[in-house]
Amino acid sequence: MEQRYAIEMRGICKSFGSVAANQGIDLEVRPGEILALLGENGSGKTTLMNMLSGIYKPDSGAIFVDGQEVSINSPEDAKKLGIGMVHQHFKLVDVFSAADNIWLGDEKAGGILKKDRYDIIGETAKTFGFDIDPRKKVYNMSVSEKQTLEIVKVLYYGAKIVILDEPTAVLTVQETSKLFDVLRRMKASGHAIIIITHKLNEVLEISDRVAILRKGEHICTVETASADEQQLTEHMVGRKVELDIQRPVVEKARPLLEIRDLTIRNDEGAAAIDGVSFYIRGGEILGVAGIAGCGQKELCEAIAGLRPIESGMMIHRGEDIVGLSPKAILEKGISMSFIPEDRLGMGLAPSMSITDNMLLKKYDQARGPFVDRKGGRAEAEQVIRDLEIVTPSTETPVRRLSGGNVQKVLLGREIKAGPNVIVTAYPVRGLDINSSYAVYDILNQQKKDGVGILFVGEDLDVLIGLCDKIMVLCHGKVMGVVHAHKTTKEELGLMMTGALDLTHKYEGKPAGYARDSRIGEVGMGDEEVEG
Amino acid sequence: MNDPLNVMTLFLFNIVLMNIPLLYGTVGEIVVEKAGSLDLGVEGTMAVGAIFGYLAGCMADSLIVGLLAAFLAAGLCGGLFALLTVSFQANQNVTGLTITTFGLGLYFFVGKGIGEDWPALASAPALAGGFAPVEIPLLSRIPVAGKALFSQNPLVYLGIVTAALVWWYLNCTKAGLRLRAVGEDPAAADSVGVDIVRYKYVHLIAGSGIMGLGGFYMALNMSGSFEGSNCWINGFGWIAIALVIFANWDPLLAILGAMVFGFFNTLQIYAGALAGAFPEPLGWLSSVPPQLYKALPFLITAIVLVASSVRKREGSGQPAALGLNYFREER
After folding, report:
1. What global pTM score does this model have?
2. In the A/B pair of chains, how many CB contacts fall below 8 A?
3. Distance from CA of B11 to the nearest CA of A (A)
4. Does residue A98 form part of some domain?
5. CB contact under 8 A, A94 and B320
6. Which of A70, A185, B14, B130 has CB 3.0 to 4.6 Å from B63, enough for a Cys bridge?
7. Chain A nearest CA to B68, separation (Å)
């Protein structure tokens, strides 16, 4: 029997200005098959898929659906051809209910809105095996609920080809496995599924075949059954990559930053951080693990002076930093870099150039009313060189860079200021392997130089591999601080959900209080004292 | 005239009579803003609707022709705004101000160009008759309210009906749902197949057309007497933009908003009469300097804007993508 492809792309090319995002890409998916699209940031995965979903038009090449050549000029065309895409940034109207978000694109729906649309949507979702609340507003939904709604929406419109762009980037381990069950069910019912990701373990778990893109070119497509992580990484990166995270041993100094009984309220007035104590030594990476929204953001903001605290102490080298302005805290050598979920929000001005973003933190050091653009440009050039940032020039607006490069600019600027404490949250969020390892190397280098690092992370494997100690938060409370080389993922997981509390493990020593505390030694100055 | 009840009735009657154009302007702007476009050209759009509606109405001696001409002429202003901001991606604020400058310029150009041949409202008896009060049976016999609310000209009723229809359209139809989606999140609407460009054009034109009806109303209410120095619209377009915020983008609340505003607007004319009719509680009204009354509507506008800005995002009717141009391939 002749092999029918659900979708086939032949010789697809697409350029943005002078940048070729896709060059001559061939790709095919069969019905009832899951194809993983693997590639580093900026390798053209999303661009390629956006041509299937009608956001972009290819410059050249042909697309076939069920063997018929088609031209997809708009998302509407894609929808009619049975192609549905779940975008990385959800395409949902926040103020609408779940049902209205779907109803919006329903061609068969009547002109007048009736109450029965809630039931229709709810029932249809049930037939696909989803339980959604059709009246719930999107802004009240969790990330996982929004994603479910997106999948229901795509199925409701009758998609036979479903594309998911990095669906697991924002999900917890449990939510991811639930999603994979859904994908397997869809596969069993004959849907063709393309999943964009750069998490290798997920590729191996869920896909039938893997197509690998590198720098806009299609490198190869391999059967998942015959592939392993090392081989896939090499295809993706183009060279051999060490997959182990280094954890250099550094002689530790006395505590740099000590936090005692800290309580912080969130925007709604509830306690986001509740009586937390911990300390960071020089030459140490303290990891922070916890389910998303357990006070990580509030903690980072409080240390950086961006959020007032309710009670407690924050002592930096024996000096109280509570109530200091963000600038004064910065001058003490505490730097904070927070990568939010949308990856562009905090710390950088997206439409300003790399040079201007470098200048943001030191504009006041220039003499006279003019900024020192020359110095800023030199710094930008150095950061670009040191961290291997891919950019056309120092004057390119930051938002034009790919995600990994944006994050490198942010980290590069923070490190340039020569801090002694680095607070970094999700620095590898959404990054591919190569960029992630570059970030780990940067942090390890800082650690060797005696900097104390607070690393708020998501991936437990990374936390265990990179950090010296890991503090686990659950609903704003510390569940314990464990040594990374002694703990396991299971133990951390139990602590994250609050099932395991190790705060009273050592009698006679309150958790999070350093034995060689510097609290009380006011005005210690800068010289290090051996602990 | 000095009968207190009579004064009060007239005061209320005039609040409605003189401020219905605000309602048209506000409802029109709500339609435009729900499509995600912030059109600051209301003043100019209303002026264009006013002068062309009035001239066409006089020539044909027909209220209907006047309404249609006002709607079309103002709709063209909306079409121009759509062409510049949707097709050419121009900045909406600048384009809106341009529309105002252009509309007022066109108003004076046409009016002064006609000069001596300017048609008087009396020369078009059917048009003037169409603007005469129509008493609604039974309801108009209610004391005070009957005169103030149910003995008005047909365009007052049309304004109320338009506001109600727009509310129904926005909240109870699929096209309205799609329109709101365009204003909230055009990328989301686009991804499910809503034709953003078409929705924007249609609603910018329709909304501007509704503003034009308000201009036409003002022309008739001024008995069509053209002055070379002062435009009929006289700042109502700007107040309408503020009223949209006051009404929280809800056409029904816009009726209330227009009347609250109308109260202060009309107060300056009736302050003396009210003070005379009710010397005990309202006598102080006549001692307030008249300049304050003139400034009052704009002071209220400023207060309303400040108060509305405190309102939280949740529950606010402001479209999230208001003022932002949409370009599908933007990254």
Report:
1. 0.80
2. 76
3. 40
4. yes
5. yes
6. B130
7. 26
